[in-house]
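Cont'd.
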Amino acid sequence: MPKRAAGVSLPFLALDSGEGAPLHHQLYERLRESILSGALAPRSRLPSTRTLSRELGVSRGTVEGAFAQLDAEGFLERRVGSGSVVALPEHARLPRTSPSAPRHRESRPVLSRRGQRLSRDVLPPEPRDVRPFTPCLPALDLFPTRLWSRAVARQARLLGPESMTAGEPAGFRPLREAIAAHLGTARGVRCEWRQVLVLSSTQQALDLSARMLLDEGEGVWLEEPGYLGARAAFESAGARVFPVPVDAEGLRVDVGVSRAAKARLAYVTPSHQYPLGVTLSLPRRLALLEWARSARAWVLEDDYDSEFRYATRPLAAIQGLDVAGRVLYAGTFNKVMFPSLRLAFLVVPDALVEAFTAARAATDGHAPLLHQAAMAHFMEAGHYVAHLRQMRLAYAERRDVLLDALRREVDGGLVPGAAEAGMHVTAFLARGLRDLDIVQRADTKRLGARRLSPLYLGRREEQGLVLGFSGTSPAGLRDAVRALARLL
Ligand SMILES: Cc1ncc(COP(=O)(O)O)c(C=O)c1O
């Protein structure tokens, strides 16, 4: 029976208490799907939480939980006194044709199998606004805007007709040279500039590597818990992902070998594991390289925030230990500079340079030349290293403030894990607390904390929060921890 409530008609909301998923999550999913499919038109008004809870025979908290999450993700606009109105966030405006709910019935699915995999929602929608705990957000308040805009303006002036035609698929040579030199001294990466490909993001490096190196059904080791962006790239390339647990020394290489010795690739974040923050120990690094050499497999090293290590010098990259040419090394400027810059790099073994360059040309041409040239100038002039140094100091202070505030305000309720490096801390929730509930409530306060449990692929999962600290001032962090403590 279609349900009708004051406001729009909601015929699709039959919730099932035997379904397994909590009722607020079922309600959230059904409303979200209806908004995306167009069944609920933008600007239509939903019934109040009170009315809807009565109609559905569930508690008001259940409806409130679903609405809060939809609000946080931009699917609803809630105004005190005037109710909730359907909105369609920017990230969802693309035409969506999910295989499970086709808009037009056709004998063949509209999307290819690859397309279906690619459009699967592995990555949760990210709020666009700056929030106190958003992970991996740089300190935009401390960014040297004047120096950067001077570098961009200078390069724009120098741009002649020949550089306005087309650039090199592998990237602007001075930038490739500057990256190779920096990686050699700062990260122990051993490469020539020819091996450096300039890309727009680590995500592009993952996508390109997955497509170039993996055939359908081939195995990939993924850290457990691990980075959803990597999972999305490998799964959409048709690879079979094997979760490999992480302990205090990083990836359990022995478990990887026993579960999937014949895998073709291992994805690792060895300097600062995402999300747990641990460092891959030297014996494990060597074991990983030995497995890759003997299995003729690849290691994809994602060095996303390795430059920010606070107590000791950053550990050298695995790439520098590799003598068999099995390691691809990915790094990004989007975290050190600013996320919308879209400049990153991938260092590939000699044997792969030509093929990857051709694939880069076939898939995307090249990164925008103006920003590549500005970045090269920024590095050559020493601004990049100076900026890194300043950010290291600022982030160390912010990390200390966060840890101190957690200790004072939520002692025992939330226990921080490894915190020697990086731009976030993962903290574990006390027994009985679920990250879904906490993050839903935190979203209503726009705190930006992320859940830990969805980053596990296997059955065993821990409940916790991923708390970014780099993008927020010390005072802002203290306020945010106080707000979080009230929620807990
Ligand atoms: C492990 C890891 N790798 C890579 C990235 C992102 O890098 P990019 O924006 O260049 O894709 C992130 C950011 O959130 C990350 O957590």
